[in-house]
Amino acid sequence: MKLFVKFICFFIAFGCVSDVKNEKSSDKYLSSNKSPFIAQLTELSDLDYPDNPDVMVRHKKYTTSVMESIQFIEGINSFDLVIHPTNKDDDTVFLNAIHLMEFMPTVPEYAKDNSYMSLISIVNQEWNRNQVKWVGTNLDAVFSGAVVNGESITRVDIARNCLESYLWELFFYAEEDGKDKVFYHGWFNFPKNLYKELFERRNTQDFKNYREYLEHWKTPPSKVLDLNKIRTIQEKWDVTFITESLNDSMYPIRGERKKKEIEIIYPKTYTKIADFQTDSARFATFSSPGFYNRREPRKTQLGRFKILKKVERCLSENRGEVLDELHFVFERENGEQTQFIFGGLKLDSLPKLSVTEANSGNQYSMGIGNHPFYEDVVAHESQSSRSNPYFGVLLDEEGKWLDSHEIGIDGPLLHLSEDGETLHVWLLSFERHALVGHYFLPYKPKF
């Protein structure tokens, strides 16, 4: 199998599909008034994907599980997904009433009046992963029980990955050694016509206005991003004097950071976070159709975060809601400054964790109105990107937007201390391979 797999997407009526794998293909799909969209599923072998970080945590049947295609059948405000097996002894998998619209990159309602803000919203939502899981009672509510490769499915994930519009992924989990482990991982091209239709319904805008950015990863121009268009600062405090850096210590190498150690190319050895704060830092890039690739080292500009110059804590209002916001100003050794601003958050709702548990903190991506990288379906559908007040941006000294992917960070990781008295702010590297900054300050709802 070639490393870069060519995916095939096509539009076909269900009545023309001759190879129905078992009798679970319900008559309601045969009689549907709307023809379904179908995409081929493809798997990557260990030879295709030598830098797969899931090798140490995956199910023993990962490399032997295959599926044929995924089908999208529109209902009322949702879609039924039918996942056809390759092997005749495997079950067809049904996921019912899936709200695909919430996966679509979306201009938040509060940003629609500003064309540049709208562009940055759309681009950063597409350029950041959104992986949603169905497990437990949430899976039971949409799932027709299925056995694939001799394993009973305990969890299903769908991901719109962080590359061009149509590159998506599908995961099945099964229990092994008392844990849910991924035993199937498939890549597919989301049907283009369906994507464009859903995008235009979601945003009431023509897809062609954003096509170059979403299909070809065109970088938006660097213009002034006026955050006052989306929120109003009510109070602000300079908290530089009570903010401390822990960059001379190492982050906990656990969880996602543990399995992604193999994706760190430079520094080759590191004993503290500050070792990453250099433009020489390199990570495995994320290549099409969606896998980590050390053969294409990703350049960074992490030297921008060498010196912490200023920190401000704010209370801001967004559509009647008062929320928390933080402003960090960093400086290179040559004096060039970079602003890191994120807000639209309720900090008192953050998890309370020790520093060794930091990898379980809340991870936020860069952008406006974004979903998190990973979330369960309840969280996914309860906080719509139409109204989500969260934002995270990098700006230069003049307030012009900077591409966080080019600079080499994915966003903040946040948690409170175990006693709730201290706020910890960590910087997630490109693709969250490492933590490249750690700062903490006393936390109180108000100063």
Describe the protein in words.
This protein is mainly beta and 447 residues long. It has two domains: 9-216, no CATH class; 227-442, no CATH class. Helices cover 12% and strands 37% of the residues. The chain contains eight helices and 28 strands. The strands form six sheets. Strands 13, 18, 19, 20, 22, 24 and 25 form a seven-stranded antiparallel sheet that branches. It has a six-stranded antiparallel sheet with strand order 1-2-3-4-5-7, with no helix packed on it. Strand 4 and strand 5 (93-98) form a beta hairpin.
- Measure the end-to-end span: 60 Å
The percent range for strand residues is 35-45%
Number of β-strand runs: 28
Count of structural domains: 2
Which regions have little confidence, pLDDT < 50, spanning 5+ residues? 1-33
Give the biggest beta sheet.
7 strands, antiparallel
Mean pLDDT: 91
Q: Estimate the global geometry from the Cα principal axes.
A: globular
- Rg over C-alpha atoms, rounded to the nearest angstrom: 22 Å
Helix content: 10-25%
Tally the helices.
Answer: 8
Class by SSE composition: mainly beta
Keywords summarizing the entry:
mainly beta, 28 strands, 2 domains, 8 helices, globular, 447 residues
